[in-house]
Amino acid sequence: MPRFTLDDTSTESVLGLLERVAAEIINPRFRALSGGQIAEKKPGDYVTVADRESEAALTETLQAADPGAFVVGEEAVAADPGLLDRLAAAEHAYVIDPLDGTRNFVRGSDDHAMLLAELRDGEAVRGWIWQPQHQLAVVAERGRGVLRNGARVVAPPVNDPPNVATSMSTRHFDPPGIEAVRTRWCCGVDYPDLLAGTIDALAYRNPKPWDHAAGALMVRELGGVVRFADGTDYVPGRPVESGQILLVASSPAVAEQIGRG
């Protein structure tokens, strides 16, 4: 496995790390996986050699560059769920989704991404999304806005009628006056779609911190709302009870509307 170094943990340097890991570990496996390089953690929940190796590389490199931080990724938690308790207790942490949209990746779809968030006392303070096939980088720092390939992002207008992307059945989630569409099965694509105004809201059941910490920060930086269906705010470092529904909206008005679903 390739080894990487990180001279500093500036936002730009960390983005460069994601790009290098994608170029050396993820991209060479895209549409080139053998059967032995794909497994299922549970039916339909894929993990590949690209997931495992990229997470190991990012974890090792971030830990070396910022030794005081707790670094954890999706695949590490799959192996040891108790790591989520350590995340909840950590004052400073990095949360990694090394290959979001693995199912898409396995099927040869360009819609996959790398997600990374820095947390302080459970709250996201920086977030990175890198879509290697689309060559799209979205980064955010708390209080400093969002950049999309280096250009500042402004809040988009709401569609008429508003729409919400969800992976849930409309039997369980069907807000009035809002068009329900399917997600892209990749939070690292869904959140940039919302930031760009393609969709106005997102709804997910049982959110995981590696999927949502970065994107939630970006949405909030543009004035959006990220909270659970019961009205409580989303805090990425906090444990989530089974069955909880996360609602992500581009504006408070949209949040109020989807909250009726």
If you had to describe this structure to a student in words, what would you say it looks like?
The structure is a single chain. The chain is of the alpha+beta class. It folds into 2 domains: 11-152, Fructose-1,6-Bisphosphatase, Chain A, domain 1 (2-Layer Sandwich); 163-258, D-Maltodextrin-Binding Protein, domain 2. The chain is 31% helix and 28% strand. The protein has 8 helices and 14 strands. The strands form 3 sheets. Strands 3-4-5-6-7-8-9 form a 7-stranded mixed beta sheet, sandwiched between helices. Strands 11-10-12-14-13 form a 5-stranded mixed beta sheet, sandwiched between helices. Strand 5 and strand 6 form a beta hairpin. Helix 1 (11-26) runs antiparallel to helix 2 and helix 6 packs parallel to helix 7. The longest helix has 17 residues, at 49-65. The chain is globular, with a radius of gyration of 17 Å. The termini are far apart.
Strand content: 25-35%
From the alpha-carbon coordinates, what is the Rg to the nearest angstrom? 17 Å
Strand arrangement, largest sheet? 3-4-5-6-7-8-9
Distance between the termini: 46 Å
What is the overall number of helices? 8
The major β-sheet equals:
7 strands, mixed
Work out the count of structural domains.
2
